[in-house]
Design goal:
Elements (H helix, E strand, L loop, with lengths): L4 E8 L3 H12 L4 E4 L7 H4 L31 H14 L4 E2 L4 E7 L2 E6 L4 E9 L6 E2 L13 E4 L14 E4 L3 H10 L6 E4 L13 H7 L1 H12 L13 H5 L2 E3 L2 E5 L2 E4 L9 E4 L3 E2 L18 E2 L2 E2 L4 E3 L16 H13 L9 E5 L4 H12 L4 E5 L6 H9 L7 E4 L2 E4 L3 H9 L1
Parallel strand pairs: 1-2, 1-6, 2-3, 6-18, 8-14, 9-10, 9-14, 10-11, 19-20
Antiparallel strand pairs: 4-5, 5-6, 7-15, 12-13, 16-17, 19-21, 21-22
Length: 426
């Protein structure tokens, strides 16, 4: 590993979230670098299927400081969006380092250290993770039991109908990606099945609607998540009747396999030549080597601020509003995060690490007491952060009791706020 380069802020990810963060960092005069794994800006958009268009209008689909160059009612193509992002980085002279794959973010004293696969390293006061929630393709385990003669691709790998063999194709997942890919695949020579529940449709929306949804903030986001109940978002560009008109046949969800064939929830099997898995993505933040990740691999945060001083995240669904993961919604979250890191005190090294659990009254009292005293500390949830319980057992001995406080090489089990301050001062 080379000697680290010193900067104020490292942004990991050069898509719309990372570029929006870069815009606001440039606005407040910070020295920063944007690291992106792709060989070109907008690469993740160019790799999507050929016929993809955004379901949000051009009038909303832009980053801060630069409108999208199209009629505000138009739905931009994925390549037009990629071109827009590249032009955005050029216009604001954002320092993007391409072909840079980050493998580690860890603590380096009061700062954070970022390491790439080629051995380059950066040391920064702040790191913003802007890689989004689509880090890994999610495919259910049952896919392994399907006959190897059936070609299987994930929506993140799908480009055009010619990828799939002739014969029937099953698209699994009836959300926006599944519905659009099913229509893209359908032809008089190919029967396409779309498996999954009907998620409904969003009615035609004016360009004013999306700023309104952004303005509803967290209350609107909370209501939306309750309405979805963990399911897919309603269809946007695909209108009622489009699937039927294209000849796509709706079938129940895939419940398993039988004799190497997809088994539907109604007991039928489908003999198909190919399967397209439109079953979503999962965040991939495994490179973050700090105790702020949940069991699913995502970062635990509040409006983009994590429990590790100096570590932030931007571009996550419902981060602050319904539109947080959209091109036109990410700018507000980027500004909030940059304003937060710019106002963070210069003395960033936390006095202590406080390990807590949800619903623990003693934990809540300790945290309140430390905050009243102005103590700088990192808070880690034992029940949610992988490795936290093991760290407490190893350091304090016995069970992973909460609250537990780590100060240097000393551990305090269920202390008062006064004990923490006294120990740190001693």
């Amino acid at each position: 590993m080379t000697d680290p380069q010193d900067v104020d802020t490292v942004v990991i990810g050069g898509g719309q979230a990372g570029l929006a963060v870069g815009f606001h960092l440039r606005r407040c005069g910070r020295a920063f670098v944007v690291l992106d794994a792709d060989s070109e800006i907008g690469g993740s958009w160019r790799r999507r299927w050929d016929s993809l268009r955004l379901f949000t209008p051009a009038g909303f689909s832009h980053l801060p400081g630069m409108p999208f160059p199209a009629d505000r009612r138009e739905s931009p193509t994925k390549d037009a969006m990629a071109d827009y992002l590249a032009a955005y980085a050029r216009r604001f002279a954002l320092p993007v380092e391409l072909s840079t794959v980050v493998v580690a973010v860890d603590r380096a004293g009061a700062d954070l250290r970022v390491v790439a696969t080629d051995g380059r390293a950066w040391q920064a006061r702040d790191v913003v993770v802007a890689t989004g929630a689509h880090g890994r393709h999610h495919v259910p385990d049952l896919a392994a039991d399907i006959d190897p003669a059936v070609l299987q691709v994930h929506s993140g790998q799908y480009r055009r109908p010619e990828q799939l063999p002739t014969g029937p194709v099953l698209v699994v997942g009836a959300g926006n990606s599944g519905a659009e890919i099913a229509v893209d695949l359908a032809s008089p020579d190919r029967q396409v099945y779309l498996a999954g529940r009907d998620v409904g449709h969003v009615p035609p929306l004016g360009t004013w609607t999306y700023p309104l949804m952004r303005g509803l903030g967290r209350p609107g986001s909370t209501l939306a998540r309750r309405g979805l109940r963990g399911g897919a978002e309603p269809l946007g560009r695909i209108r009622p009747g489009d699937l039927e008109a294209a000849g796509v046949r709706r079938v129940p969800r895939v419940a398993g396999t039988r004799d190497g064939l997809p088994l539907l929830a109604d007991g039928r099997t489908l003999r198909v030549a190919g399967v397209v898995w439109c079953t979503g993505f999962r965040p991939d933040h495994r490179f973050v080597r700090l105790p702020v990740r949940d069991d699913a691999g995502g970062l635990i945060h509040h409006r983009g601020v994590t429990g590790a001083p100096g570590l932030y995240v931007v571009g996550m669904p419902h981060q602050s509003s319904i539109t947080s993961h959209l091109v036109g919604g990410v700018g507000a979250d980027a500004r909030f995060v940059v304003d937060h890191l710019a106002g963070r005190p210069a003395t960033t090294a936390p006095l202590a690490t406080v390990y807590t659990r949800d619903g623990c009254g003693r934990c809540a009292r300790l945290v309140r007491g430390l905050r009243r005293r102005g103590v700088s500390f990192a808070q880690v949830d034992i029940g949610r952060a992988p490795g936290a319980a093991d760290a407490v057992r190893a350091g304090a001995g016995g069970d992973a009791t909460a609250p537990t406080v780590e100060i240097g090489d000393r551990w305090l089990v269920a202390p008062s706020a006064r004990e923490v301050v006294t120990t740190a001062g001693g």
